[in-house]
Design goal:
CATH architecture: 2-Layer Sandwich
Strand content: 25-35%
CATH superfamily: STAS domain
Structural class: alpha/beta
CATH class: Alpha Beta
Number of domains: 1
Strand order of the largest sheet: 1-2-3-4-5
Radius of gyration: 13 Å
């Protein structure tokens, strides 16, 4: 499940549930991208602290490839991502690869740090 809210100039997209396959991730990503593309806001907090990923770390590379191919417009957005601590390495890897691919993305451990970074 994906939900959204706006806090000032920041679009907050929250997810919840289990992701067992890459297609599970892509289905959530498609919803996330639809919300982001429809919004005039360019600062986005992706809060996936209620999502459990049960995928190999290598899928982080595939997800960035998906973004490059299907959502290159996201490079003009500023993205903060928070994942459950059990998925910290995946989030860190995804953010690192994303930056090297031209996305403005950073991973955080808590909501307030992410909001502070997006506010700058």
């Amino acid at each position: 499940m994906i939900s959204q809210e706006v806090k000032g100039e920041i679009l907050i997209i929250k997810g919840e549930g289990q992701r067992y396959t890459f297609m599970d991730v892509i289905q959530g990503t498609i919803k996330l991208l639809e919300i982001a593309e429809a919004s005039p806001l360019h600062k986005i907090l992706i809060d996936y602290t209620s999502v459990s990923f049960h995928l190999p770390l290598s899928e982080s590379f595939n997800l960035i490839r998906y973004y490059e191919k299907n959502a290159s417009w996201m490079k003009s957005r500023k993205l903060a991502i928070i994942l459950h601590l059990d998925n910290y390495l995946m989030a860190e890897t995804w953010a690192t690869i994303g930056v090297k691919s031209g996305f403005r993305i950073k991973h955080f451990k808590d909501n307030q740090s992410a909001l502070d970074w997006l506010s700058t």
